[in-house]
């Protein structure tokens, strides 16, 4: 059986690259109550009450804010979970993902 061999004087290198991360972004609207957004940030994104309040104020003042940064699969799961909870409670909160 023949096996692969490298020529003398040559080398191979393998570069490992970690997968990219994504921001989960909440967008401001005129319908979703701030208290509801705070509870989402605490329950879904494991934020402290103070962090959740700060993020909610930023959403209100600037139109959007990052709720969390995760690898793609986790970010997508958090986004979907948030949207399901929002729609179940009758809120139109927009949640998007953006690559970091």
Structure in words:
With 100 residues, the protein is of the alpha+beta class. Helix content is 41%, strand content 21%. The chain has helices at residues 34-43, 49-62, 72-88; strands spanning 21-27, 64-71, 94-99. It has a three-stranded antiparallel β-sheet with strand order 2-1-3.
End-to-end CA span: 48 Å
Major sheet: arrangement of strands: 2-1-3
> What portion of the residues fall into strands of 2 or more residues?
15-25%
Characterize the overall form: elongated
Q: Low-confidence parts, pLDDT < 50 over ≥5 residues?
A: none
Please work out how many helical segments DSSP would assign: 3
Main sheet overview: 3 strands, antiparallel
Q: What is the tally of beta strands?
A: 3
**Class computed from helices, strands and strand pairing:** alpha+beta
Radius of gyration: 21 Å
The residue-averaged pLDDT reads 93
How much helix, percentage-wise, in residues? 40-55%
- Helix/strand order, N-terminal first: EHHEHE
């Amino acid at each position: 059986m023949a096996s692969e061999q490298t020529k003398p004087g040559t080398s191979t290198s393998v570069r490992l690259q970690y997968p990219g991360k994504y921001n989960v972004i909440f967008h401001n609207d005129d319908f979703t109550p701030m208290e509801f957004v705070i509870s989402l940030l605490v329950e879904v994104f494991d934020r402290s009450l103070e962090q959740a309040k700060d993020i909610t104020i930023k959403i209100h003042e600037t139109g959007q804010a990052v709720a969390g940064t995760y690898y793609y699969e986790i970010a997508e799961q958090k986004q979907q979970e948030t949207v399901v909870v929002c729609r179940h409670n009758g809120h139109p909160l927009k949640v998007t993902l953006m690559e970091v």
